[in-house]
């Protein structure tokens, strides 16, 4: 059983996966590579002068891989259901169990809605400030939870918020993912 199943491998999903995997939660990412980033060129991402969306995705995937998240590249999720200890994620070839699920499925909100997540008036998955949905231990970020005014930086932030909320729940306290190099003063 995984701790976290992330459905979608765009900026929001990879950000959530980075936070959870980096902090020792067993994390699996289902990535069909159907992201708008393939048509993007980032000029407005803080800290990056300019980068093609495809290159950004390559760097982000490597970073997530380096922190031992299991990426199911090409793995298409067909259903998510409640299970005794969390969720069962069904793909076209297998089933996976996880305590938490993060929906980063772009404009497709059908799986989250089928799970029981409430939708907002604009058709997005309703979330709170931590990107938690109305279903316990289920989160949504990126276009899944935001209809318009979406950018890679916003998606990354939503995924990070979900990841930090999961980590806070697991640790039983507010968790902050700050790292300080040994030689910092």
Note down, in words, how this protein is organized.
With 185 residues, the protein is an alpha/beta fold. The protein has a single domain (2-171), classed as FAD/NAD(P)-binding domain (3-Layer(bba) Sandwich), CATH 3.50.50.60. Helices cover 28% and strands 24% of the residues. It has four helices and nine strands, in the order E-H-E-E-E-H-E-E-E-E-H-E-H. It has helices at residues 11-22, 53-66, 110-115, 152-171, and strands at residues 2-7, 27-31, 41-42, 51-52, 70-73, 77-83, 86-91, 95-103, 138-140. The protein is globular. 42% of the residues are buried.
Give the topology, please.
Elements: E1 2-7, H1 11-22, E2 27-31, E3 41-42, E4 51-52, H2 53-66, E5 70-73, E6 77-83, E7 86-91, E8 95-103, H3 110-115, E9 138-140, H4 152-171
Parallel strand pairs: 1-2, 1-8, 2-5, 8-9
Antiparallel strand pairs: 3-4, 6-7, 7-8
Helix pairs in contact: 1-2, 1-4
